[in-house]
Write a structure and sequence with these properties.
By secondary structure, the protein is mainly alpha-helical. The chain has one domain. It has 8 helices and 2 strands; from the N terminus they run ααββαααααα. A two-stranded antiparallel sheet has the order 1-2. Helix 1 crosses helix 6, helix 2 packs across helix 3 and helix 3 packs parallel to helix 8. The longest helix has about 30 residues. The N and C termini lie far apart (about 40 Å).
Length: about 260
Amino acid sequence: MNLKYKLADDAKPQVSLLIIATLISIGIWVVSWFFPFANYIVYPLQLFATFVHEGSHVLAAIMTGGSVKSLTVSPDTSGVVWSLTNSQLSQGIISSAGYLGTTVFGIILLIWFRYNFSSRNALYSSSAFVGIMTLVFGLLAPAFNMFNSKVGFGSVIFTVVSGTVLTAGLFAIAKYANMKWVNFSLAFLAVQCLLNAVFSLKTLFLISSTTTTHSDAANMAQVTGIPALVWVLIWIALSVVMISVGLRFYAVSQKGKHDLPFED
């Protein structure tokens, strides 16, 4: 059986930036073991991944007929979405959407990057996503539900401030940065989303195997009766499969599909 894996020639220009973004991300992660302050270098990107995670919960709630009372992001990069659902199936979908949604978002950015769609538009769209989540669900939703909300004023303030800064930062890069930096930023953003999803699932595995701390996996256990640790393993398996499929799309030739040069 031939197991050789060949990268398409027309994928190589993007791969160079992707490899650099990956090496930098992993390098910062390794350095942070010895020098925790190194985490602050990618702190905005960790917050971005949290907005994607919590935003995935929000989208799942809306698509399954539920309502969202608030979305909050904390300084430690954790987040919470308070929602009302009408069924256990809906609750299960919402609970699963966070980690899997972050993985899907990263894969979409990878494929967008690979197929030479506008990197600026991808950053504009990412900026708009964070901005909408911040304004509608981070600010307006808690305000409308202030008497029934479990969210503290400080949490709302941090969510709004961090979301506004991220929205403005992504928009500024998309509008004003040189195209090479725009492409690198998109690659770096995609890598950070995927790494964040993987590392977060690793952390969730350790939490679920040693404690009974409230988490998405604990929610799934409550809804289904299946242990939280099993759900973590299922999400890890699904994430690995999705990333593998995404990388496969990334590696194959796109000749005949798009003829836009990578620099455009």
